[in-house]
């Protein structure tokens, strides 16, 4: 009793407006519609006071102009005596549409900190709850499909705080039930020989039209460690367990997007066009280019934009709000961003730091990107996938969270670790 009163007082006293958050990468960010705020958690470099677990909130003030040049974050300290995860980065992260909660799992954690199994955070109670005891994974990509959070790849290394002396890698899709937090098994491959290489720092989207998870880029470990080519797209049907690789991936510009890791991908509401932003190349240099991938044609095209784009970055987060994609944080060659920077209007492809009418209203139509509404069939592209029937089930409520993960390269890593 005393403790909860005490916590309530702490909560009231310490909640304050901060104009900028420390620069970081590898954080998780999501929009919660019940409170009309964006919430971010974690990321590195870990602060000296890494035991202090803060959640940051940004008020999306109705339909007025949001000033992203000086965003006013509020920091929310957690209950120091309550259940909470360790300070972490590059964890698996998702918000749950229609609820006031988000979920984190794994990631690298502060020195000598406990590993993060699954934790759910409730915005309204400012409380964390442990939802499973799963083995932590760092640098997995993920996508929420109805109530199932699918993840792909990643590693369990000593940096995750898990008690083991070597690193184990993954190359399968696995999942949890988002409602209960209960662990699901890996999506059993129909044919083991079709599994992709061990992969981390990739990105993933789910298309309801293709009933498939699409995995882009990342670092792969086969004979050596390489950054996955953008012609190397792994497509997984969670229903059938078919892991396939799309062939004949082309680009309208003649050259494929540069290979990358720590980038972001989202899918539009037609479930046919993927938007990819940024990431780091094989030399660890960050990019700020924008590409569209048309699933029907299996073709990449560079998307021209106007306005001032975000600086090059990887391990950033993106949050989609109505027609805008907001780019948050991220790093580049040892420097880190604290800015939300700018939002991309995906109807005009203009970057702006003063988006208007940002919240989707109930009457506004879902955003389909230009060209994405002219499907041309997919015969001969998907090897064995189940692309002809439509999935039934709920929606993602118009909010798509790009899952951003990254991978160390010596020039970028602030921690003295060599084994990840
Ligand atoms: C967000 O901003 C709106 C408009 O200024 C205000 O009415 C609301 O109380 C704010 N919400 C929070 C949680 O601060
Ligand atoms: C915390 O999680 C456990 C296990 O999932 C659940 O039984 C419990 O009800 C949760 N508590 C709260 C306050 O949500
Ligand atoms: C990893 O560690 C386990 C347990 O210590 C050991 O059995 C296994 O051989 C190790 N694997 C490699 C690849 O070093
Ligand atoms: C599994 O995939 C390999 C390589 O694509 C193929 O050669 C083999 O025939 C497949 N096995 C079955 C049972 O389909
Ligand atoms: C994808 O398709 C589903 C089902 O038709 C729809 O509810 C959803 O809004 C679409 N877009 C996204 C981004 O999920
Ligand atoms: C990465 O980008 C930098 C800067 O554009 C370039 O100099 C370098 O060659 C690129 N590395 C690779 C492997 O593409
Ligand atoms: C969109 O259409 C324009 C004009 O028809 C074309 O130049 C462009 O390549 C198309 N983009 C995509 C992604 O198909
Ligand atoms: C999929 O959905 C589209 C649009 O709702 C519809 O025209 C088409 O017949 C559906 N396909 C199947 C196989 O159900
Ligand atoms: C990292 O650790 C190694 C081994 O402990 C040490 O030799 C090296 O100087 C350290 N590097 C940095 C940049 O701290």
From TrEMBL:
Residues 1-20 form the signal peptide. Residues 377-388 have a biased composition (Low complexity). Residues 357-376 have a biased composition (Polar residues). Keywords: Kelch repeat, Repeat, Signal. Coiled coil: none annotated. This is Galactose oxidase. It comes from Phycomyces blakesleeanus. Residues 357-388 are annotated as: Disordered. It holds the Pfam family Kelch_KLHDC2_KLHL20_DRC7.
């Amino acid at each position: 009793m005393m403790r909860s009163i005490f916590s309530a007082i702490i909560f009231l006293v310490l909640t304050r407006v901060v104009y900028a958050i420390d620069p970081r990468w590898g954080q998780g960010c999501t929009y919660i519609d019940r409170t009309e705020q964006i919430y971010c958690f974690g990321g590195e470099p870990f602060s000296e006071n890494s035991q202090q677990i803060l959640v940051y909130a940004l008020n999306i003030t109705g339909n007025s102009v949001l000033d992203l040049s000086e965003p006013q974050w509020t920091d929310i300290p957690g209950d120091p005596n309550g259940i909470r995860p360790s300070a972490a980065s590059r964890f698996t992260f998702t918000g749950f549409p229609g609820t006031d909660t988000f979920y984190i799992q794994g990631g690298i954690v502060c020195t000598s900190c406990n590993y993060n199994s699954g934790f759910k955070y409730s915005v309204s109670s400012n409380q964390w709850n442990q939802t499973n005891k799963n083995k932590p994974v760092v640098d997995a990509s993920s996508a929420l499909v109805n109530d199932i959070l699918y993840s792909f790849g990643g590693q369990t290394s000593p940096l995750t705080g898990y008690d083991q002396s070597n690193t184990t890698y993954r190359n399968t899709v696995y999942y949890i039930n988002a409602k209960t937090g209960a662990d699901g098994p890996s999506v059993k491959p129909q044919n083991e020989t079709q599994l992709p290489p061990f992969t981390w720092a990739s990105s993933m989207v789910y298309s309801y039209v293709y009933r498939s998870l699409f995995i882009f880029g990342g670092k792969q470990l086969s004979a050596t460690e390489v950054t996955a080519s953008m012609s190397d797209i792994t497509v997984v049907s969670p229903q059938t367990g078919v892991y396939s690789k799309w062939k004949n991936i082309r680009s309208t510009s003649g050259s494929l997007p540069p290979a990358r890791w720590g980038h972001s991908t989202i899918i539009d509401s037609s479930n046919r066009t993927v938007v990819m932003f940024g990431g780091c190349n094989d030399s660890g240099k960050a990019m700020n280019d924008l590409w569209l991938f048309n699933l029907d044609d299996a073709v990449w095209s560079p998307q021209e934009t106007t306005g001032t784009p975000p600086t090059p970055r990887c391990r950033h987060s993106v949050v989609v709000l109505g027609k805008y994609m907001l780019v948050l944080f991220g790093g580049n060659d040892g420097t880190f961003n604290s800015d939300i920077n700018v939002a991309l209007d995906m109807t005009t492809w203009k970057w702006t730091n003063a988006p208007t009418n940002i919240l989707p209203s109930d009457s506004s139509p879902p955003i389909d990107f230009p060209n994405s509404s002219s499907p041309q069939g997919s015969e001969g592209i998907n090897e064995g996938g189940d692309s002809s029937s439509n999935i039934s089930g709920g929606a993602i409520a118009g909010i798509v969270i790009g899952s951003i993960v990254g991978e160390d390269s010596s020039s970028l890593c602030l921690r003295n670790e060599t084994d990840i």
